[in-house]
Design brief:
Largest sheet: 5 strands, parallel
Low-confidence stretches: none
Strand order of the largest sheet: 6-5-4-10-11
Mean pLDDT: 91
Helix content: 40-55%
Number of strands: 14
Length: 553
Amino acid sequence: MTPAALAELVRTTAVDVLSARGVDTSVLPETVTVERPRNPEHGDYATNLAMQVGKRAGVAPRELAGWLAESLAQRDEISSAEVAGPGFLNLRLAADAQGAIVRDVLTRAEEFGSGDLYAGLRVNLEFVSANPTGPIHLGGTRWAAVGDALGRILRAQGAEVTREYYFNDAGAQIDRFVRSLVAAARGEEVPEDGYGGAYVAEIASEVLRREPGALDLPEAERDEVFRRIGVGLMFDEIKRSLHEFRTDFDVFFHEDSLHSSGAVTECLEQLKESGSLYHAEGAWWLRSTEFGDDKDRVVVKSDGAPAYIAGDIAYLRDKRERGFQLCLYMLGADHHGYIPRLKAAAAAMGDDPDSVEVLIGQLVNLVRHGEPVRMSKRAGTVVTLEDLVEAVGVDAARYSLVRSSVDSPVDIDLDLISKHTNENPVFYVQYAHARLSSLQRNAASLGIARGGVTEADLGLLTHEREGDLIRTLGEFPRVVRSAAELREPHRVARYLEELATAYHRFYDSCRVLQPGDDQPGPLTIARLQLCEATRQVLANGLSLLGVSAPQQM
RNA sequence: GCCCUCGUAGCUCAGACGGAUAGAGCAAGAGACUUCUAAUCUCUAGGUCGCAGGUUCGAAUCCUGCCGGGGGCGCCA
């Protein structure tokens, strides 16, 4: 019996009990929650329902809990129901009812953990969107790992997710990039406000290889050559490194296209006419103060040129026209000031501001010898996605970036992380999967068939560690659901660590394959199925994080 | 100055919607390998949940005010 089924049973029981005593059942919440108590003495599951509704029902919590316990204890699925503390109801499941979780996992297989929370919802998920003036740095790498995982998690809840990367390839930073390329090609120093680093020189020389006479062209033409080829090479580089990081996008959107297509102009005209922008001091303004901004923001400058934010508005309009119901943005903490502007932009176009959701993540700090390391774009001392992958590999890099809440800053210590210590919990989780895979191989080589889901007596799984493991498996669907609801992929990682622990503990206490036992008993079959269910959930969870589930290590 | 965010064990961090004695990993100490993979497991030690009030049966969690770290406050992009 799954936690969800148990919660439903508690609720229907509460309805019966209350109405039998003449108490108004409308005091009951829509959904009852059952949680797993930390202390095993408090049962397999516990509910605080009686305390929640006791006052409103006019019944003492302990008394109400007692009524529930009496009724629930008569169910076959429940082995015990006790009142504790101020009105907790502690429940234990009968072994065979609990074992049904294993059957559920094996039946749904890859689908176990999925849900329909966002069935059919069209979601645009924009993340990374780093400027195409250099390689992806550590901060962008974090968004790549977290955003990709979030996309997978939302899809697991039925959402139709489009992953999108916005290239800011219009404006001054591209000019600076081009100037840096030209300077490098001419062997000059990095210009003021320019970009340094080996990649600039590499791209510059590649431009020269393709257009050997580029430096002899008139300045405007020369810059255009470096812009066209150099920025293109940078795009390719970014896409390639992200792809190798297993983060692929459905759409790479170019800011420049919004300007060249006239979309920005068209959008601005429309907003001016509809009165969504107001004219003052020679400029056109967006009412971002209505969404908590310090001041309204200029959209069209007094010289008639669009401000940067105009591109954002036109881009949002483009997303809306493509039919997205929810636009998610993942931005670094240094961009949190964008939230009111984006909300205001949505409102200006007549959309619900809640259709725009901005997730703010803390930055990644680089540490060496316990001291913070300053990274400088100009000096080219930025640590990149590729540096990190080279040091620890894709799995460890992704996992270590996704297992923390984005609300907390992450320190990356290069000395530590390049040691290949197993301090990284990804190995712990992957090892559990490898162990389980090995176990299934061994069973197969011994000629032991695991059997179908109806061929095991899962009620034999009565060992304490077996119960813990099964109940942990049962948590997976609600972990995925809450990760999706809260946009917090790290919950899946933390869960996997908990599941791996439960499995390793089980493995330590419960022998699965009996040596010399060519006639596997029913307990062996039941345990094999439990193991396969565990392997399946580990694989499903790792898949949501974009981390591999190795067959052996 | 205003806004956002964080503050939990020596270190890195979990603890959404208020629940029972606040957890994990690493580091420290002591144990368990003729192994179904020891990248594992068991035990010990480690805490003023930044501080002070408030809300209530109950607060790490919610509210207010301080303290401290990080970030943001352009007709730049």
